[in-house]
Design a protein that fits this description.
alpha+beta, FAD/NAD(P)-binding domain, D-Amino Acid Oxidase, Chain A, domain 2, 2 domains, 7-stranded mixed sheet, 9 helices, 21 strands, 24% helix, globular
């Protein structure tokens, strides 16, 4: 029997698996598809993401450095006409313009001509309301590569990681859980003392164990334009009701366009309007749900949720990578850390005592101890048996 069966090998699941494995737990990770795919998250992240990856991975994962943002109250060419662009920013526009001129020309249709005119206008007036610093404030990374790197780290810590395993059922019992998954060799069942739902905003684990859903799910859409873009500022458009749209320069990987809308809104239509306003055609697209509003409870009888499954997102940007990669036990009080090889048992905890709990080897967890283990393994703040992320909130990035 495994100590933890982790469902989902995204950043939150892989981080949990590595942290638990390093503390002597037996961990199995099940990922439904190929790790990191399909992509459903922006690669614009806080610079402290490098705390969670090997030093030699930085050069491979880093695509661009961001020094600030331009906020727009309208379309691509909206902004503060009273300010002239700095030499550096003008140079960036010239580089992007030269890159556009080097690309194959579009057909002579009216739509293509309109897009070309908008592109020229955007290059001439792209300031927006700019906020920037003299040093990088955030990074743009290879998001698929990050997931692969974090899963590799979990494996190196002796967690067993299996991709191509889609969980179809979770049964909680008094002494453990049974997780049924469909894999390359057919249907299999895996036993564990606990199941960790790190399987995204539409969590199968959450549904199976009856934990509450997030307040709502936004519909996010991403598109990627080819051709190098070494700009050093992201563009943020405050034109989407209840959220925003963005453009992110990704260095040699091109540029990313995206937005998110509330349930019932026309995400494809708004995204087409964004692309048309910028005068671009994207090479590939993807979409996904963004959970907003953490549920009242993320801990069950033998289960806990982390990451998107627990709606651990920043309230202003809906970024969630930093929450999923929150610190482990290194900077937490020793009284809150379970000792390696031992599991906490709520039935042995004296009433009214938060520390100094009695421990027994290999005994079932109670909900309070599930919360403690979640705190120890992910660094999230646990309040009233709900795992609530406490990331730094600021302008450094959406994630």
């Amino acid at each position: 029997m495994h100590d933890f069966v982790v469902v989902g090998a995204g950043p939150a699941g892989s981080r949990f698996a590595r942290s638990a494995s390093e503390r002597g737990r037996d961990v199995l990770v099940l990922e439904s598809g190929e790790i990191g795919r399909p992509l459903a998250c922006s690669g614009h992240v806080s610079r402290d993401v490098w705390e969670f990856v090997p030093d030699d991975a930085r050069d491979r994962l880093l695509q661009n450095e961001v020094y600030g943002a331009r906020f727009h109250l309208g379309g691509a060419d909206s902004g503060d006409d009273r300010r002239e662009p700095s030499d550096e920013r003008a140079g960036g526009a010239e580089r992007r313009h030269a890159s556009d001129e080097a690309r194959p020309t579009e057909s002579d249709s009216g739509a293509a001509s309109g897009r070309s005119e908008r592109r020229e206008r955007r290059h001439a007036s792209q300031d927006g309301y700019a906020f920037y610093k003299d040093e990088p404030v955030s990074n743009v990374i290879d998001r698929v590569g990050l997931d692969e790197t974090l899963a590799d780290r979990a494996h190196e810590a002796d967690a067993e990681v299996r991709d191509g395993h889609t969980v179809t059922r979770v049964d909680e019992g008094p002494d453990g859980v049974a997780v049924t998954a469909r894999g390359p060799d057919g249907t299999e069942s895996f036993e564990g003392r606990m199941v960790v739902g790190a399987d995204g905003p539409r969590s199968k684990v959450r549904d199976e164990v009856g934990l509450p859903e997030p307040d709502e799910l936004l519909h996010g859409v991403l598109g990627f334009e080819g051709g190098a873009d070494d700009g050093d500022r992201v563009d943020v458009h405050l034109t989407v009701p209840r959220f925003f749209a963005w453009r992110i320069p990704r260095g040699d990987a091109g540029a990313e366009y995206g937005l998110a809308v509330a349930p019932g809104d026309d995400a494809p239509g708004r995204f087409e309007a964004l692309l048309d306003d910028y005068g671009v055609d994207v090479e590939r697209r993807c979409s996904g749900a963004i959970p907003i509003g953490p549920p009242d409870r993320t801990v069950g009888r033998r289960s806990l949720l982390v990451g998107d499954a627990a709606a651990q997102t920043k309230p202003f940007t809906a970024g969630r990578l930093r929450a999923g990669l929150a610190r482990g036990t290194a900077d937490r009080p020793a009284a809150r850390q379970p000792r390696p090889g031992r599991l906490l048992d709520a039935r042995t905890r004296p009433a009214g005592r938060a520390a100094g709990v009695q421990r027994r080897d290999r005994r079932p967890h109670g909900p309070a101890d599930v919360a403690v283990l979640a705190s120890a393994a992910t660094g999230a703040a646990v309040v009233g048996l709900s795992t609530i992320a406490a990331p730094r909130i600021g302008a450094e990035s959406p994630n």
